[in-house]
Structures are given as C-alpha cells and as structure tokens.
Amino acid sequence: MILDPSEQSNQAFDFETENQYLKLTITALRDKIETLQIKQDEKIQKTKSASADEISQLQNTVNSLRDKLEKIQIREQEKIQKAVARANDENKQLKNIINMLREKLEVQDGDENQTKKK
C-alpha cells in the first residue's frame, strides 16, 4: 500500500479544515456556555433579590403585627387596671357605707338600751 503524495496533501488539508471547524465549534460552544452562565447568574441574582425583598416585607409585616399586638395588650392591661381600680373604689365605698350603717345601728341600739333602762 503505497500512498500517493497527492493523497497525503489532500488528507493534511482535510485535517486542517476539520481542525479549523472543530476550533470554531469549540469557540461557539464556549460562547454559548458563557452566555448561558451569564443568564443563569442573572436569574440567580434576580431570585436572590426577590427573596431578599420578600423577606424584608415579611419582617416588616411581623414587626408591624407585633407592634399592634403590644398596643392591644397595653390597652387591655389598662382596661383591667381601671376595672380593678373601680372595683376597689366600689369596695371601699361599700365598706365605708357598712361602717357608717354599723355605727348608726350601734348608736340606735345604745339609745334603745338606755331608754329601756330608764
């Protein structure tokens, strides 16, 4: 099997052409991969940003609800304190009335006892 020199130069040309095409294909694939990577990085960044925004909004909502709850609790505590104060005042007034009535009864009993002794 003797190779014809013209075939060798033809084969070399084919290898060079194929090599050139492969290099172009590699370059095109690299460019495509880089483009896809950039798009993927952008999507990741957008997702992170959206997640950070959502987290921030949720934290603000939680803080707002916590503030409202604290205000409601404070108002309820104030209502309870006022109710207790009113009840204490009423009890005090009732005790004073009872003491006054007791004293009147004691005075009346004392007067009746003195009238009976006479």
SS strand fraction: under 5%
Shape: rod-shaped
Radius of gyration: 50 Å
Low-confidence runs (pLDDT<50, min 5 residues)? Answer: none
Total beta strands: 0
Which structural class do you get from the secondary structure elements?
Answer: mainly alpha
Distance between the termini: 166 Å
SSE run? H
Q: Classify the helix fraction into a percent range.
A: over 70%
In DSSP terms (H or I, runs of 4 or more residues), the helix count works out at 1
Mean pLDDT: 90
Largest sheet: none
Entry keywords:
96% helix, 0% strand, rod-shaped
Walk me through this protein's architecture.
The chain is built from one helix and no strands. It is mainly alpha-helical and 118 residues long. The model has no long low-confidence stretch (mean pLDDT 90).
List the helices and strands and how they pair.
Layout: H1 5-117
Describe what is shown at a glance.
The chain has 1 helix and no strands. The chain has 118 residues and is mainly α.
